[in-house]
Amino acid sequence: MEVNNPLYKNQGIHVISSLFTVDHGVVKVLLIKRNNEPFKDKWALVGGALYNNEDLIDGAKREIKEKSGIESIDLYLSSVHGKVDRSPVMRMIAVSYVGVIDINSVNIVKKTMKTTDAEWMDINLVKNMDLAYDHNEIIASSFEELKKLILKSSILDCLFPHGFTIPEIQKVYEVILGTTYDRRNFRRKLLSLDLIEDTGESSVFDGKKPAKFYRFKKKIDDINIF
Amino acid sequence: MEVNNPLYKNQGIHVISSLFTVDHGVVKVLLIKRNNEPFKDKWALVGGALYNNEDLIDGAKREIKEKSGIESIDLYLSSVHGKVDRSPVMRMIAVSYVGVIDINSVNIVKKTMKTTDAEWMDINLVKNMDLAYDHNEIIASSFEELKKLILKSSILDCLFPHGFTIPEIQKVYEVILGTTYDRRNFRRKLLSLDLIEDTGESSVFDGKKPAKFYRFKKKIDDINIF
DNA sequence: TTGACAAGTGTAAGTACAACACATATAATT
DNA sequence: AATTATATGTGTTGTACTTACACTTGTCAA
Questions:
Q1: Which is nearest to B172 in space by CA: B10, B21, B39, B48?
Q2: Which of A77, B9, B114, B210 lies in disulfide reach of B202, CB 3.0 to 4.6 Å?
Q3: What is the pLDDT of residues B41-91, one digit of tens each?
Q4: How far is the CA of A220 from the C1' of C5 (A)?
Q5: Does B4 touch chain A (CB under 8 A)?
Q6: What are the φ/ψ torsions at residue B9 (nearest 5 degrees)?
Q7: Quick check: B222 pLDDT over 60?
Q8: pLDDT at A226
Q9: Nearest CA of chain B to the CA of A12: how many Å?
Q10: Cα(B9)–Cα(B30) distance, rounded to whole angstroms?
């Protein structure tokens, strides 16, 4: 069906992903530098216009692959942004997703048809950058969503493809949530969330007691229903 | 700007509201009967296509007014629905909102240009109805959102334009959450949520101790940020 | 064998929550 | 005016969960 009513002609949907990682104790988000107008040469989140023949989350994943090369990733719905003037070109609604990536197990494609650079940016520095569109806002709400998700989903799973020890993952929780926890209480808290399970294996470091390896459970209700 | 790329030509945004009320101890949702194709003569939630010149929440409110006559209402973002085939006409993304209405303080307009009927439907009966579009799904997720919202926002405020007593509002919480609470523990719980405040007045019923009147606080962070 | 170090386990104090008893205010009744 | 019925409002106790901190355990290096 062709739309001719000017009241709602030429609308579109952006699917935009805030991809986070933790690198050397710093939370970073993946930004790309745009090669096209609008906002040419500005840093932006990975994302773009949804196609007619794909579901929202599939569109988000396609855009991630196109603009960064990242192939498989779990995405979680974050928020919706729809201010009238958020795009200078035409009316665009943004549906935003959150994901986590292991910086060591992917190679980010720096240049594509639509990008001239790609970088993992310190979340604290991003606050002072002037990103394309309303991507500053989107990152802010996605980071808040991330804080909730790490306490109720397996979103951090991919950071530890070979499992993790509890003291190790504690640092990740602390840097994301911006707090510190008592070592012993954190163990109890994390185990009580029913997200992780013992692998039976132990790490062997130098001169210290070996730590048990854990992994995230594959939970059915962890699937994003939207 | 005119869109010609068939990949994302002719997309649109639905703004759809699940308006709940509690009537004689039953949770009800406002449905309208459609007068136009698609889904002519089917029951549906109030909502429609977003205009280019209005923000999402303003579009939702305009649609509510157009299709039910309800003028002022607080809306809260609920969910996003974007399956490829959710509209038979063209590609439509639905942004869904939740609101609460006092059934006694509004007159629902039964017939409009686009509707032939309007009715407050028992939420339990709605589960077995075959609504237009994916509105069954939307109601389900909106009702879940409502359950969260009554514990952290003033969404129930409009149900009690002249204030409420705690035993009175307890029944509303119980029917929405599908539980019962100990009278005395509920009082403490509700007061600890920091949502309500004493008005200084008391109700006067027959032969019983008068109950204090409370009202919802006007909180700044209660504003919907999306 | 001992020391260093971090992992892992335990324990006591404090806090939040659930179950239940008691006191209070009103109007109808005696 | 005292009594009674009824539902509101406050307190209290026991339990579970959280927080703070002490102790034990397993590895490598000296």
A1: B21
A2: B210
A3: 999 999 999 999 999 999 999 999 999 999 989 999 999 999 999 999 999
A4: 40
A5: no
A6: -100, 145
A7: no
A8: 40
A9: 6
A10: 33
Helix (H), strand (E) at residue A125: helix A123-126
Contact A76, B78 (CB under 8 A): no
Minimum-distance residue to C27 (CA–C1'): B207
* Total length of chain B: 226
Relative to beta strand B11-23, strand B26-34 is antiparallel
Residue by residue, DSSP assigns A180-213 as ---HHHHHHHHHHTT-EEEEEEE---SSSPPPEE
CA A169 to chain centre: 17
Give me the CA B121–C1' D13 separation in Å, rounded: 45
Domain residue extents for chain A:
6-152, 155-216
From the alpha carbon of A202, which nucleotide's C1' atom is closest?
C7
- By residue count, chain A amounts to 226
Q: Are A43 and A30 in contact (CB under 8 A)?
A: no
Query: Under 8 Å CB-to-CB from A117, ≥6 apart: which residues?
Result: A32, A33, A110, A111
Task: Please write the tens of the pLDDT for every residue from B1-42.
Answer: 677 788 888 999 999 999 999 999 999 999 999 999 999 999
In CATH terms, the fold of domain A6-152 is: Nucleoside Triphosphate Pyrophosphohydrolase (3.90.79)
Closest CA to A216 of A194, A200, A184: A194
Subunit contact A95:B77, Cβ cutoff 8 A: no
pTM metric for this prediction:
0.94
- The percentage of chain A sitting over the pLDDT mark of 90, rounded to a whole number, equals 88
How far does the CA of B210 sit from the C1' of D2, in Å?
21
pLDDT band of B135, cuts 50, 70, 90: very high
| C-beta of residue A51 within 8 angstroms of C-beta of residue A133 | no
The tokens for B134 are: 């994916």
Is pLDDT of B220 > 60? no
Share of chain B above pLDDT 90, in %: 88
Dist CA B119 CA A20 (whole Å): 46
With tokens 């854990």, the residue in question is A214
Question: What is the reported pLDDT for A1?
Answer: 65
Q: Which residue has the tokens 């699937």?
A: A223
Per-residue pLDDT averaged across A210-216, rounded? 95
Query: Measured between CB atoms, does A201 come within 8 Å of chain B?
Result: no
**A108 CA: distance to closest CA in chain B (Å):** 26
